[in-house]
Amino acid sequence: MAIDYAARRRYRHIDRFLNKVGPSTDPDFVAGAPTITALEESKVLVIGAGGLGCEILKNLAMSGFKDIHLIDMDTIDVSNLNRQFLFRKDDVGKSKAEVAAACVMKRCKDVKITPFNGKIQDRDEDFYMQFKIIICGLDSIEARRWINATLVSMVDMDNPESLKPLVDGGTEGFKGQARVILPTLTSCIECQLDMHAPRAAVPLCTLATIPRQPEHCIEWAKIIAWEEHRKDTILDTDDPEHITWLYEKALNRAREFNIPGVTYQMTQGVVKNIIPAIASTNAIIAAACCNEAFKLATTCNPNLSNYMMYTGDDSIYTYTFEHEQKPDCPVCGNLAKTITVNPNHTLQQFIESLGERPEAQLKKPTLRTESTSLYFQAPPSLEEQTRPNLSKRLGELVADGEEIGVSDPAFTIDFKFKLVFQA
Fold first, then answer.
1. Which DSSP state fits 88?
2. Are 57 and 100 in contact (CB under 8 A)?
3. Helices 51-62 and 279-298: angle between axes, nearest 10 degrees
4. Within a 13 Å sphere around the CA of 309, how many CA atoms are in the beta-carbon half?
5. Residue-wise pLDDT tens digits, 232-248
6. For residues 286 and 135, is the Cβ–Cβ distance under 8 A?
7. How far apart are CA 358 and CA 60, in angstroms?
8. To 10 degrees, the CA torsion angle through 240, 244, 250, 256?
């Protein structure tokens, strides 16, 4: 198939890489029309249309990708306009995915972008199976863990097309990272979970009695008020109604103690652990992600193996290393993860620790051994039946070295932990 290079003038900088064999190209790389056609026909999914997602979408469209799909459940807020450059003031309140897609297609008329307004969890495996590459620009660890587990579970060893490369980018202020995950073949997001340690907890007594900061009021609404008024409903940090409820409770709490500064945006940030984004960091990490997607689609150069970290607070510094797979990874491994516990701690204390441990970060765990149920979060009848176990010592409920199964409503997989008692 002949290529009309006059029509591809926009992509002439890209064609320099695709029209010749280089020292690092894959042995099966074919310069010219076949690779250009493969790039144009590569169906790519971008998850997230925020600060990072806008940059990724623009870069992909300018890199020769012609069939891009975009999914995001959020609507545009006025606070997004300072860095999410695909949006304008008139777009406030509209779907991020739809507006971002329309904006890029207006500038790049030969690119087709299909927007989806909704949660990634609402799509099944057939939806994700249609894509060649999936790129994440998310601000949520939970969402990353969900898509990671889904892509790993999709892999069929007899069907190479079932392996969908995941390119993940993330930013926190002046810091960021880009990584390439080949499900079942390389380290996955769950293998690297301990690199994303949860925030240090605020003492509960401070939240309950003497809040001093607006963040304390928001944490109070999330931890105490929600349990008092809506304990039968699982908190969904992506649900605007849930965030609004927390915001209103936190605002009333702040007024009670004369604490200014509680806003809806801050509530989102505290509840979802969002650190303010910086446009230049987003641009750098998005460029790294799209560079990897381009290499995966064309094989013109080896892809990242497999983790690149960036920091730009004191100076510009990057470091690349290979994060190894963990045999005890609950997603891509086949061994139970070993956790050292105090046998004198109660089951309630252990459950609370699962939310704080960097390698677990489970908020609503249900626990069971091979022979018995330890604690069920739901339904209410089973929760009531297993509730007495919460006050029992771990040493009474499980043996030293025994494996337990743990499930959490936020994830599609079950986790296996081997409990080893402290000496």
1. -
2. yes
3. 40
4. 11
5. 888 888 889 999 999 99
6. no
7. 33
8. 170
Is the model's pLDDT at 210 over the cut of 90? no
d(CA 312, CA 281) in angstroms, rounded, equals 8
Total Cβ atoms within 10 A of residue 132: 18
Q: Which strands sit side by side in the sheet containing 337-341, from one edge to the other?
A: 337-341, 414-421, 403-407, 366-368, 373-375
3-17, 129-143, 210-224: least confident range:
3-17
Predicted pLDDT of residue 357: 75
Give the separation between CA 312 and CA 177, rounded to whole angstroms.
12
252-268 residues labelled b (16+ CB within 10 A) or e (exposed): ebbeeeebeebebebbb
Q: What does the pLDDT read at residue 206? A: 63
User: What gap in Å lies between CA 197 and CA 219, rounded to an integer?
Assistant: 18
**Strand, helix or coil at 317?**
strand
205 flagged as catalytic: yes
**What per-residue confidence (pLDDT) applies to 221?**
92
Partners of 20 in the β-ladder? none
- The set of residues, in sequence order, having a beta carbon less than 8 Å from that of 28 and lying 6+ positions away, is 299
Helix (H) or strand (E) holding 284: helix 279-298
- Here the tokens at position 6 are 């006059």
Q: Are 271 and 219 in contact (CB under 8 A)?
A: no
Nearest alpha carbon to residue 272 among 174, 85, 138: 138
Tell me the sheet residues that pair with 172.
175
CB 372 within 8 A of CB 386: no
How many angstroms separate the CA atoms of 319 and 220, rounded? 39
Beta strands in 93-231 (DSSP E): 112-117, 133-136, 166-172, 175-181
Q: Is the dihedral of CA 308, 67, 298, 57 positive or negative?
A: negative
Q: Spot the catalytic one: 54, 188, 205, 332.
A: 205
> What average pLDDT is seen over the chain?
88
